[in-house]
């Protein structure tokens, strides 16, 4: 299906004014908006199907379980995982990575071992590994970036040694929009007997993910960035690894036999899903996957990249505006406008109804690497239009005038 402005009719939230201007939502990398089909899937689930899962034998219980496990199968198919047991529902990317760090990391990383990350990680894929490194007296090593902010295989090779136990890397940077060579990294990582953890929070919403083609050991993403609801995400892990890992949370649903002193646990995914799971969230995520696939991820990606190129071409004409990262990127543009603070840029744009993100984007080491205390970011999704990019550029020119002393 071709993407045109009619797609916006699917997103009721976009049809509103903010500060008396038509809303221009350019913050989808933080969280995307939701189409009617997702909102209605969640509503219908609560109206017709809800009960707890995996418990009673009654009809609603069976229907809810089918909906929940059906969502798992849809996620498995979406990322081309081999087995349903490899799909763990979590609260989001952050929780998924924390599970891997707390369980696999604490078990397999020892004193003097190495964990490798890059300078462009979101804090969600950095702090959990800092904690493992600190607790285990392991070394946290950083892959250097090229001057324009890319991760090269040469730079990864420079950090990976036979002491490396885990390499954790974003698939796509939430600040620079660069795509990392995760499949090649997987081959390298496996050659030293380590595992690769891929943070796919910024890739899963925009491009086809194939975990078997990447051959990553773990991969994490969040539903809310891909037209799905908040509160649910996915941890993919290779079956043998997940089944050998200790659970992180304990309680109902994840046990096999409970004795007075000790208990045994179910295999994956249930050993990682203690308590009543995020049933309606899984239903919403599944509907979001169907929605994205009905449009075609390749169409979505092409549309956003075209918008980013169109935006950058015009933004470069604004004197004093700095764009961070290389030309080759996904659909987002991070920038600064002279020495105007990014929060001020975002505030003036908001006065014109334009929503962009400002701050350190949960990537403080990268901000320091860029030499910026904060930046502004416009991120595009399938519902954005060239007219909205034009509004952004006009807004930036007005912002520049407003703060003309900064130039
Ligand atoms: N990893 C990356 C690469 C991200 O961009 C984000 C969120 C996360 C992990 C965490 O995802 P969560 O769903 O668990 O919160 N990124 C952003 C952002 O760029 N602006 O706001 C949130």
What are the salient characteristics of this protein?
407 residues, alpha/beta, Aspartate Aminotransferase, domain 1, Aspartate Aminotransferase, domain 2, seven-stranded mixed sheet, four-stranded antiparallel sheet, 13 helices, 38% helix, globular, binds ligand 7TS
Distance between the termini: 45 Å
Low confidence ranges: none
Ligand types: ligand 7TS
Strand order of the largest sheet: 4-10-9-8-7-5-6
Silhouette? globular
Radius of gyration: 22 Å
Instruction: Provide the CATH top-level class of the largest domain.
Output: Alpha Beta
Annotation field: number of helices: 13
How big a fraction of the residues is strand? 15-25%
CATH homologous superfamily heading of the largest domain? Type I PLP-dependent aspartate aminotransferase-like (Major domain)
Number of domains: 2
Predict the CATH topology of the largest domain: Aspartate Aminotransferase, domain 2
Series of secondary-structure elements, N-terminal to C-terminal: EEEHHEHEHEHEHEHEEHEEHHEEHEEHEH
Summed over residues and divided by their number, the pLDDT gives a mean of: 97
Structural class: alpha/beta
Residues in helix, %: 25-40%
- What is the CATH architecture annotation of the largest domain? 3-Layer(aba) Sandwich
Let me know the largest β-sheet.
7 strands, mixed
Give me the count of strands. 17
């Amino acid at each position: 299906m071709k993407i045109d402005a009619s797609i916006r009719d699917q997103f009721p939230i976009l049809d509103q004014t903010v500060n008396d201007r038509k809303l221009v939502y350019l913050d989808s990398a933080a969280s995307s908006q939701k189409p009617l089909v997702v909102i209605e899937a969640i509503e219908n689930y609560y109206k017709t199907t809800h009960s707890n899962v995996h418990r009673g034998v009654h009809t609603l219980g069976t229907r809810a379980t089918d909906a929940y496990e059906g969502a798992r199968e849809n996620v498995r198919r979406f990322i081309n995982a081999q087995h349903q047991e490899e799909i763990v529902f979590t609260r989001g990317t952050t929780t998924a990575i924390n599970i891997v760090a707390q369980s696999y990391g604490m078990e397999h990383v020892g004193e003097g071992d190495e964990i490798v990350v890059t300078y462009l990680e979101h804090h969600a894929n950095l702090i959990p590994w800092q904690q493992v490194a600190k607790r285990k007296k392991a070394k946290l090593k950083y892959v250097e970036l090229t001057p324009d902010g890319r991760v090269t295989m040469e730079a990864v090779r420079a950090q990976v040694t036979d002491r490396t136990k885990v390499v954790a890397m974003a698939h796509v940077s939430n600040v620079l929009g660069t795509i990392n060579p995760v499949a090649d990294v997987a081959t390298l990582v496996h050659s030293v007997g380590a595992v690769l953890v891929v943070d796919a929070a910024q890739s899963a919403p925009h491009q086809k993910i194939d975990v078997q083609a990447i051959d990553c050991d773990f991969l994490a993403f969040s539903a809310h960035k891909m037209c799905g609801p908040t509160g649910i995400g996915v941890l993919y892990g290779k079956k043998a690894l997940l089944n050998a890992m200790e659970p992180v949370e304990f309680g109902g649903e994840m046990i096999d036999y409970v004795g007075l002193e000790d208990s045994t646990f179910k295999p994956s995914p249930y050993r990682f899903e203690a308590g009543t799971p995020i049933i309606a969230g899984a239903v919403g995520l599944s509907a979001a996957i169907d929605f994205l696939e009905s449009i075609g991820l390749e169409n979505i990606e092409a549309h956003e990249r075209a918008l980013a190129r169109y935006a950058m071409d015009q933004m470069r004409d604004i004197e004093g505006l700095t764009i961070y990262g290389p030309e080759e990127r996904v659909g987002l543009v991070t920038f600064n406008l002279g020495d105007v603070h990014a929060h001020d840029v975002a505030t003036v744009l908001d006065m014109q109804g334009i929503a962009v993100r400002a701050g350190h984007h949960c990537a403080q080491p990268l901000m320091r690497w860029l030499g910026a205390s904060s930046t502004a970011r416009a991120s595009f999704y399938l519902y954005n239009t060239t007219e909205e990019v034009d509004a952004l550029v006009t807004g930036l020119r007005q912002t520049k005038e407003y703060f003309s002393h900064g130039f």
